[in-house]
Amino acid sequence: MLLFIAAVNEAFARRYFDGRNPAGQTFQIEPGRIPLQIVAYLRDARYTEMRVPVLATAYVSFGNINAKSPQDSDSATFLVRTKSPNPMVLASILRGEIPRARPEFRVSDILTQQELVDAQTIRERLLAQVFCMLALGAVCGLALGLGSARYIATLLYQVKPTDAPMLAVPAIMILTAALLAALPPVLRATRIDPSEMLRAE
User: Fold this and answer.
1) Pick from 130, 98, 125: nearest CA to 114
2) Is the pLDDT assigned to residue 45 strictly greater than 60?
3) Does residue 64 contact residue 20 with C-beta atoms inside 8 Å?
4) Order of all β-strands in the sheet with 36-42
5) 19-56: buried (b, 16+ CB within 10 Å) or exposed (e) per residue?
6) SS (H, E, C) 79-148
7) Between β-strands 58-60 and 36-42, what pairing exists: parallel, antiparallel or unpaired?
8) What ranges do the domains of the chain cover?
């Protein structure tokens, strides 16, 4: 019987083999498709979204992607590892070698791992920047306020400029205004689709 080979992740093993090592087992993605024999058992990895649970995933050999393959052949995703400090130097090689092996394939959307991570974490990074700016503004404001306390004391009657209520009220008002000003861009950032961001870049 003709078999194709595949590697599966831990989520696949948990879902279909009760968490046991499935190496050597066979399965079909759909009835009527050529069976796949599991030859490798891989650790879970985020494949599409970083915020969703890891899906049960089977990885099929590039050489087995054809009309009789257990998966559609109109697209594929490749992960290329390199020790080069500039991974993008491989882009031209990939664009030449992949079509040479499979003429119907064209390479597009070449991205580094860092670019993928940055696109998935844009919301967190934007929020971190906003809160860093707020914290920096608060520290600078407090430092300037305390530094001018002696001068302010000459303008006040029976009130110390370092009294907690005197500092708390304006500090809360400034912080509230800053949060309200930062809220619209933060909300817009949370609605950004990472895939759209990558295509725009």
Assistant:
1) 125
2) yes
3) no
4) 26-27, 36-42, 4-9, 58-60
5) eeebeeeebeeeeeeeebebeebeebeeeeeeeeebee
6) CCCCCCCCHHHHHHHHHHHHHHHCCCCCCCCCCCHHHHHHHHCHHHHHHHHHHHHHHHHHHHHHHHHHHC
7) unpaired
8) 1-77, 121-200
Residue 1: C-alpha distances to residues 25, 35, 36, 69, 167 (Å): 14, 9, 11, 14, 80
Please give the model's pTM, rounded to 2 decimal places. 0.52
Token couple for 117: 């991570």
What are the tens digits of pLDDT across the range 75-128? 677 778 888 888 888 888 888 888 888 787 788 888 888 887 787 777 777 777
The Cα–Cα gap between 181 and 9 comes to: 45
- Asked if residue 177 lies in contact with residue 138, where contact means CB atoms within 8 angstroms, the answer is no
Half-sphere exposure of residue 151: CA atoms within 13 angstroms, side-chain side: 5
Residues 6 or more apart whose Cβ sits within 8 Å of residue 47: 54, 55, 57
Distance (Å, rounded) from C-alpha 102 to C-alpha 112? 23
